[in-house]
Prior knowledge:
The chain has 263 residues and is an alpha/beta fold. The chain is built from six helices and 15 strands.
Amino acid sequence: MNNNSYISYPLEIIEIVSHTEIDRTFRLNSNMNLKSGQFLEISIPCFGEAPISVSDFGNGWLELTIRKVGRLTETIFELKVGDKIYARGPYGNGFDVSLLKNANLIIVAGGTGIAPVKSLISYFCVNRSSISGFDIVLGFKNPDSVLFKREIENWNRYAQVMLTVDHGTCNWKGLTGFVTKFIDEFRLHPGKTKAIIVGPPIMIKLSALGLVKLGVAEEDIYLSFERRMSCGIGKCGHCKIDNQYICVDGPVFTYNNAKRLLD
């Protein structure tokens, strides 16, 4: 890894998992020190650079869950095991696991917003005894867009998981509706509940307001503004809201500090 923030370094692809036609997880060979909720600046020479949240990590590896949406990501989707992806980072403050221990933990994620919290969910599934309660609600547009299906089945062993889609099909037997529809079903414990919300801005806003209405303290609700990332080091200004550079000061904020930053 290069100490120069402007210079990227190569990471070898060791596994590729397809979730949907446009979503894949790339496992890369890496020993970098990471926190859940951090992101990398990913690039392919001559094709560009983009911020991507780290979706999971372990001893000798990290994972990036990438959606094919443009020239760079289309090029990444053409890569194979053994090829290299270039990276800068990690960047961002991430989630502080120590602040969540002993809490009744609620995680709300929509669409690709599941990626920044996947490693956090995995951590607390392994360390389930470190929290008193565990509720997860995951929302996707339709059944074909659901990510991490195998992992979600495993999470059900450790948490109350509500998986919902905006629009069901005749074969869909699960929940239907926006994640905000299920806020009232959380098992809340006054003074012990902490919540994490990641997803589209309107989903974050309405979910946070719903939790506050139920009595969750604003300082106990953590939001990730991972969608606002750009250069990663506060130089381009694209992520700036008011006087906050989201990539430097965030992307994780408590709701009481972030509610004025919501779109």
